[in-house]
Amino acid sequence: MSGKQSRKRGRAAPDRASAVPAGPAGAAGSARALGSAGANGAVGHRRSVAPDELAELAARLADAPAAVCTAIDASAERVAGRYGAAAETWPEASPIEAGPAACVLRSNRSVVVDDTSEDLRWGCCPVSVSEGIRALLGVPLRDDDERIVGAVYVVDAAPRHWEEAQVEAVDRLAILAGNARPIRHDPAEPYPDVPHLFLSALLETLDVGVAACDADGRLLLYNRALRELRDLPASWSPTDGLEASLVTNPLLGLDGQPLPLTGVPLVRALNGEVVEQTDVIMTAPGRRLRIGSANAKPIYSGDGRCLGAVTAFHDITDRRRAERFADCELQVARALAEAHSVAHAAPTVLKAVARSLQWPHAELWLLDATSEHLEPVAQWSAPALDLRVELPSVTGPEGIVGSVWASGQPLWVPDLLTSPYVGSGEAAARTRECARQGLRTVLAVPLLDEGVVQGVLACFADTIEGGEELLTTLLGTIAHQIGQYMARRRADELALELARTKDQFLALVSHEMRTPLTAISTYTELILTDPEQECSAQHRLLLERVDRNTRSLRAIVNDLLDLAALESGRFTVSCDHVDLVAVVHDSVGAAAGAARAAGVEVLTDVPDRAGLWADVVRLRQVLDNLLSNAVKYSPHGGEVRIRVRTEDDTVRLAVSDTGIGIPEAERPRLFHRFYRASTARNHGIPGTGLGLTIVRAIVEAHGGTIAIADVPGPGTTFEVRLPASERPAATPD
Q: What pLDDT, on the 0 to 100 scale, is given for residue 459?
């Protein structure tokens, strides 16, 4: 603010200037200035003017209801005298950088404000409209060395226009009270301590807490961020000393023990130590603990003398909390993985969450499918907590938990004592008991499954907490974990139930079909083989077709029964000495008729013998399935080749055809039940998609493997590997 523009609408204040104080002129200097001058400015000719009298005289000269007289030292502005009711709300002390003194010192002259609610210069001032101050006329008081050591503020509870005569009268009074002569200053020349003021203002705007002391340990600087971080009262000033701030708001080490004065980072730096990234816990009555990362170092002159020390604190509370929650997520995941239900894992989950938050209590409700109420399944409390009211069921949208259930949204309750979410009945009694035990802030989040609330997780703090957005996000992550687990459990249970139902259906259908099919097959065979039965050629042809289709249907039923046994765990093999070569010859002989009808040649390349310890019936089933598929999918004039080789302790069986082949991308799914390759479907070749599933089950039951071999040329080659030992391995006692 320039000398010619001291008010918003451009009216000039009296043009007088002086040096801004640069050092501890202090309240004592201000008191001397206020008490040494007579009303006419002559030293010793009249009695001293008391600060209260000076305030009253200034108010009367300006025709205002109130005034305040203050003393200014290097770090704070303090009230020395008051007059009028409106002056009673003026703060007892305020930092220079954030109080009305900042405007006086910055302009180095009178400050005229018609309306504090509209003047942008007054945005940082603690004297607000809510405290009853709407108009202000501030005039600096100076000592014998022309330094500003105080100020007179004439105030009004309503906006007003300060007349030039009023401004000049109060300014003249200040000159007389300070016994100093007016000094005009060249506006083009910077004021001597303007850089200091700009630095102080800059430090006040930082989010990093900064403090500094001189070589004797006296605090010179304690910025706004550090005062807020340590939750120091507004009346606290650096002149009170560092030790005084440790009485009500002690600093703790990470072990929870109070730091002695010699352990405070600033003092350690003053003793010559460079402190880097040292974590300390900052406490304050009724406020959650905060963690600060401190750096500090001594300040030396060019000749090596210690001039003091400086420290900086970064608030890393949220960072540390996020790190704890990352570990909490792992603990919750482990607890859920090892539990058979959410209720079983709940105590471990609640303990991990509460300890990560460093809150003393947590609760979990889950939706009961039968009652359709939220039922409490677990709670965890710190050892010192004694909640004597049991958790009630939640039946409607009342209380904290009921509100979250109804809305499906997280709920942050800053203070239980003033919460509107009390509810009624047992819920209200529970809330009152929590408040009686000292629980204050509550955060409750829903457990969602496809957008439907399946439960509520609530955590309680014993202090009034901040950080709503971060904590809601962190706790929401845990709730999402639990919700996903519940969804997976529900899906697994549904899949298990579907599989059980499907197996029961397959078994029922298979058994119910087998009986009539057996009768049809038996009667057809009797008619066809009984020489006494007279059938026309046409009737015999029809009966043969019935018999053939009946056999095919019986084969499907047998496959379904095998599949049901396989998936129910009842699929077994009965092993004995078996010659695989003999089984190959039997299977080829049985398929000869079908091969001739299809115009496919079946070739074998086998040794004299290949001994196995196997189930001959199941082994024949493997060969029949592979051979029938090879014949079925080969074109007329095609070729099917069966090879058997014995290598060390393994017998290899390969069945190759020159047929339509199987696309590479579909091979991983070929052994899945009911799956058929696209080439088979496109050629209209009938099949159920069960044969290869059963073949693999039989092979694996023998301790072997089956796969599609990569061989050049058309067609497909299935390769089976089976253990060659003719006796089972000895079982140790």
A: 93
Q: For the segment 601-627, what is each residue's pLDDT rounded down to a tens digit? A: 999 999 988 888 888 888 998 998 889
- The total number of residues written for the chain in this structure: 733
Please, which pLDDT band fits residue 511 given cuts at 50, 70 and 90?
Answer: low
Instruction: List pLDDT tens digits, range 226-249.
Output: 888 888 876 677 777 777 777 778
Backbone angles phi and psi of 290, in degrees to 5:
-120, 150
3-state secondary structure (DSSP) of residue 675: coil
Whole-angstrom distance, CA of residue 428 vs CA of residue 488? 35
Q: How far apart are CA 45 and CA 119, in angstroms?
A: 41
Residue 191 has pLDDT above 70, yes or no: no
For tokens 């700009």, name the residue: 198
Quickly count: other Cβ atoms within 10 Å of residue 378's Cβ: 20
Tokens 């084969």 belong to which residue? 555
CB 718 within 8 A of CB 709: yes
Q: Any idea what the Cα angle at residue 133 is, between residues 132 and 136, rounded to 5°?
A: 165
- Cβ contact 280:265 at 8 Å: yes
Cβ atoms of 1 and 138 within 8 Å: the answer is no
Distance CA(644)–CA(256), nearest Å, equals: 76
309, 319 Cβ separation under 8 angstroms: no
Question: Mean of the pLDDT values across residues 520-532?
Answer: 77
For residues 475, 478, 482, 487, the Cα torsion angle rounded to the nearest 10 degrees is 100
Edge-first strand listing for the sheet containing 639-647: 601-605, 639-647, 650-657, 717-723, 705-708
Per-residue pLDDT, averaged over 180-193, amounts to: 39
Instruction: State the Cα–Cα distance between residues 460 and 441, nearest whole angstrom.
Output: 6
Which of 233, 229, 380, 234 lies closest to 317, judged by CA?
Answer: 229
HEC string for 433-454:
HHHHCCCCCEEEEEEEECCEEE
- The separation between CA 393 and the C-alpha centre of its own chain, rounded to angstroms, equals 28
d(CA 580, CA 594): 22
- Please enumerate in sequence order all residues whose Cβ is within 8 A of that of 486, keeping only pairs 6 or more positions apart, or say none: 342, 447, 449, 454, 455
Sheet holding 111-113, edge to edge: 93-95, 76-83, 66-72, 148-156, 135-142, 111-113
Token output for 209: 């807490």
Q: Looking at residues 38-45, what average pLDDT do you find?
A: 32
Predicted local distance difference test score (pLDDT) of residue 22: 32
Q: What pLDDT does 489 receive?
A: 79
Give φ, ψ of 296 to 5 degrees.
Answer: -150, 150
Contact partners, residue 571, CB within 8 Å, separation at least 6: 562, 565, 697, 701
453: Cα separation from own chain's centroid: 19
Nearest to 182 by CA among 138, 143, 146: 146
Tokens coding 14:
């009296």
Range name among 415-424, 590-599, 689-698 with the lowest pLDDT average = 689-698
Confidence of residue 13 (pLDDT cuts 50, 70, 90): very low
Both tokens assigned to 514: 């087998």
Q: What is the mean pLDDT of the chain?
A: 78
What burial class does residue 476 get, using C-beta atoms within 10 Å of its C-beta: 0-12 exposed, 13-18 middle, 19+ buried?
middle
> Which tokens belong to 563?
């599949």
Is the distance from CB of 100 to CB of 113 less than 8 angstroms?
no
How high is the pLDDT of residue 408? Answer: 92
Contact between 229 and 290 under an 8 Å Cβ cutoff? The reply is: yes
- For 386-438, the pLDDT digits (tens) are 877 778 888 888 889 999 999 999 999 998 888 888 777 777 888 888 888 88
Name the helix (H) or strand (E) containing 370.
Answer: none
Q: What distance in Å separates the CA atoms of residue 479 and residue 350, rounded to the nearest whole number?
A: 11
Pairing of strands 374-381, 361-367: antiparallel
| DSSP characters over 129-145 | GGGT--EEEEEEEE-TT
